[in-house]
Amino acid sequence: MSPDSGNSGAHQHGERADACATEAPGRRYWSVEEHLADVLSRVSPLPAIELQLLDARGCRLAEDVTATGDLPPFDNSSMDGYAVRTADTVGATEQYPSVLSVVGEIAAGAAELPRLGPGQAVRIMTGAPVPPGAEAVAPVEWTDGGTGSGRAAQAMTAARPDEEVRVRQEVRDGAHIRRRGSDVTAGSTVLTAGTVLGPTQLGLLAAIGRGSVTVRPRPRVVVLSTGSELVPPGEPVGPGQISDSNSFTLTAAAQQAGAIAYRVGGVPDDPERLRAVLDDQLGRADLIVTSGGVSVGAYDVVKEALQGIEGGEDHAGVEFRTLRMQPGKPQGFGRIGGVPLLALPGNPVSAYISFELFVRPVIRTMLGAPDVHRPVVRATTTAALRSPAGRRQFLRGRYLAEQGAVEPVGGSDSHLVGALAKADCLIVVPESTESVAAGEPVDVVLLAD
Ligand SMILES: Nc1nc2c(c(=O)[nH]1)N[C@H]1C(S)=C(S)[C@@H](COP(=O)(O)OP(=O)(O)OC[C@H]3O[C@@H](n4cnc5c(N)ncnc54)[C@H](O)[C@@H]3O)O[C@H]1N2
Ligand code: MOO
């Protein structure tokens, strides 16, 4: 059977006429690649902006970051104990400890430091600067704890004139001292452009004294669902009504892709209302995603509201297309007020798959991410598959990594949200293939993060 034989795929299904399998003569049909390439050719990474550290979490650095100072910024103690001169502890044992006079105490944060002379020790806290003259720190466990009772203070406290400490073992040069610059040296590049900022990178930036940083911001994505039948989940569902699920799926998916997503509730099938809502939302959007209203019905509101409107200087309006894929056949793409807009079909599985294939790569591109696409692996299907001729089908599945296999979940219909929620991958059946036998290899798009 020819891959372009149109209706023949629907006959193979045998159960019902498949509107998705009919091709109108003279109409342009787009492949998945053509649509994706067109969409991606018209979006770019967002301009870099400066953000406060915590606002930059998860963003990608747009600059190489150089340390202006050393880390640690000064030699400091890694133990609570006594700063000493090594010569004073030579030969010290449990039985014959070195007896040193304690001339002061240094807590973390102390600015004024006593100078250590021969036979002297300074009580020192973890993180406190090592005083001049000291060569090492004897942890308090290596001593008798000293005869003084000075408590930690912000500055050096005067030791009692008769205060002593017994050090019970030799202390080697540099012991328990964290050297200035041993972690990060002044002038070195600590993070390079492109690094994703997680907790430890943000901590490093704070440690070197950076309060803000230049990053690619998260795109702000406005998600709208359309349909007069929609009610918000939790509210009573009247005759013919359904709970709006797409706006939740798509908002969560946008967040998962790295965006700041705003869910705008269901907009009824009224083009004027939709245009007004879009006008309102444009100011806070880097990208607009709608669901529903892109087919050929009498109330296809997105199409009605957006077809033919001016889209700003760079592109005129939104174009509605038919793709050779199932689900996800009808798609809209363009710009309004300079903001890219993807209009996804309303069927919940179609909307989600369209998001994964087209919207997620847009968000990842705006983020400047190198991994724009979901990974694709080969796996053998555990069950036979059927697909309409001339359409690339995306069936839902569970990937069995250890067996290198994939198990179909639910059927091919685009309303099956129960099965969708059990799936973690998409099984791809190419346009030229109408059936795949169990045990044969297929491409699998992995959806799990
Ligand atoms: N005569 C034809 N009819 C249809 C065709 C076609 O080629 N010829 N294509 C079908 C395909 S394929 C798709 S996909 C849908 C796309 O339709 P729309 O984008 O216009 O979507 P709606 O009609 O608004 O809704 C379709 C379906 O999905 C439900 N829906 C919509 N929004 C939500 C939401 N936010 N949450 C949950 N469910 C939603 C809606 O109630 C409908 O059942 O058109 C086919 N028809
Ligand atoms: O192509 Mo539609 O998107 O199957 O449901």
TrEMBL record:
Annotated EC: 2.10.1.1
Alphabetized Pfam families for the sequence: MoCF_biosynth, MoeA_C, MoeA_N
Keyword flag Transferase: yes
Pathway recorded for this protein: Cofactor biosynthesis; molybdopterin biosynthesis
InterPro entries, sorted: MoaB/Mog-like_dom_sf, MoaB/Mog_dom, MoeA-like, MoeA_C_domain_IV, MoeA_C_domain_IV_sf, MoeA_linker/N, MoeA_linker/N_sf
GO process terms (BP): Mo-molybdopterin cofactor biosynthetic process
Region annotation Disordered: where it falls in the sequence: 1-21
Keyword Metal-binding attached: yes
CDD domains: MoeA (cd00887)
Annotated transmembrane regions: none
Cofactor(s), names only, from the UniProt record: Mg(2+)
Source domain of life: Bacteria
Ranges of residues in domain MoaB/Mog: 222-365
Keywords recorded for this protein, A-Z: Magnesium, Metal-binding, Molybdenum, Molybdenum cofactor biosynthesis, Transferase
Reactions catalysed, as given in the entry: adenylyl-molybdopterin + molybdate = Mo-molybdopterin + AMP + H(+)
GO (cellular component) term, any one: cytosol
Ranges of biased composition (kind: Polar residues): 1-10
GO molecular function, one term: metal ion binding
Function according to Swiss-Prot or TrEMBL: Catalyzes the insertion of molybdate into adenylated molybdopterin with the concomitant release of AMP.
Protein family according to the UniProt entry: Belongs to the MoeA family.
Name used for this protein in its record: Molybdopterin molybdenumtransferase
Organism: Kitasatospora viridis
